[in-house]
């Protein structure tokens, strides 16, 4: 379970940074950035923070709302940033992920001093030094919170896209290559600006 062990190793404003949506065939890649300004945080939130992939959609949304409440109280800083499907095609998914992370950090209300980044590759452009942590979203409160910010924000965005493009099941698959998504592609083709044209499964429909 996550805790503040990594955060406690550094001085100043420490942001956890994580992404959501590297694997889907459609939609942007999203990143979250969260800074805990105090350890006096809602107890339910701390007890339940974890890697967003290990939580149900309903639980993620509850924790997301709790994070927004803590932000409103001034207890945390929290922001998201994204890189579009077009930017993914232009730069590749890794560089687009780094771009989303940089945007999330820059969207925070204050400049951070250090970042804890989920994974094993350091993004450039954060404006500060960082430590990468493998499975960080299950080990650091800040990264776990960032993963929830990124995942829930992206899921909401994909639900909005589903209203515009109802043939692909985005509200259920978040852009991943499910049966419903494939059937939508077969019947209706791709949506430029939404589908990731550089991904091999999408190229088959071009």
List the helices and strands and how they pair.
Blueprint (H helix, E strand, L loop, with lengths): L13 E7 L8 E8 L6 H6 L8 H16 L3 E8 L1 H7 L1 H14 L7 E5 L10 E5 L7 H24 L5 H4 L5 H10 L11 H4 L3
Parallel strand pairs: 1-4, 4-5
Antiparallel strand pairs: 1-2, 2-3
Any descriptors?
single chain, alpha/beta, Nucleotidyltransferase, domain 5, five-stranded mixed beta sheet
| CA-based shape | globular
Largest sheet: 5 strands, mixed
Mean pLDDT: 96
Indicate the CATH topology: Nucleotidyltransferase, domain 5
Provide the helix percentage. Answer: 40-55%
Structural class: alpha/beta
Task: Output the CATH class name.
Answer: Alpha Beta
Order of helices and strands: EEHHEHHEEHHHH
Number of strands: 5
Protein model, in words:
The structure is a single chain. By secondary structure, the chain is an alpha/beta fold. It has eight helices and five strands; from the N terminus they run ββααβααββαααα. A hairpin with an 8-residue loop joins strand 1 and strand 2. Helix 2 (57-72) packs across helix 5 (141-164) and helix 3 (85-91) packs across helix 4 (93-106). It is globular, with a radius of gyration of 17 Å. The model has no long low-confidence stretch (mean pLDDT 96).
Brief description of this entry?
The protein contains 8 helices and 5 strands; from the N terminus they run ββααβααββαααα. The chain has 206 residues and is an alpha/beta fold.
């Amino acid at each position: 379970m996550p805790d503040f062990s990594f955060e406690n190793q550094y001085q100043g404003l420490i942001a956890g940074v994580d992404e959501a949506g590297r694997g889907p065939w459609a939609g942007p890649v999203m990143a979250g950035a969260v800074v805990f300004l105090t350890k006096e945080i809602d107890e339910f939130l701390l007890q339940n923070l974890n890697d967003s992939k290990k939580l149900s959609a309903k639980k993620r949304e509850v924790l997301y709302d709790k994070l927004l409440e803590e932000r409103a109280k001034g207890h945390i800083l929290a922001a998201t940033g994204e890189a579009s499907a077009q930017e993914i095609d232009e730069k590749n998914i890794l560089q687009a992920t780094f771009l989303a992370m940089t945007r999330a950090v820059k969207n925070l209300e204050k400049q951070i001093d250090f970042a804890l980044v989920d994974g094993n590759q350091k993004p450039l452009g954060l404006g500060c030094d960082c430590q990468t942590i493998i499975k960080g979203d299950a080990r650091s409160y800040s990264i776990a919170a960032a993963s929830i910010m990124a995942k829930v924000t992206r899921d909401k965005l994909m639900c909005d896209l589903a209203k515009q493009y109802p043939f692909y099941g985005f509200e259920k698959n978040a852009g991943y290559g499910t049966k419903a998504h494939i059937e939508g592609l077969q019947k209706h083709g791709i949506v430029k600006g939404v589908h990731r044209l550089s991904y091999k499964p999408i190229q088959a429909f071009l």
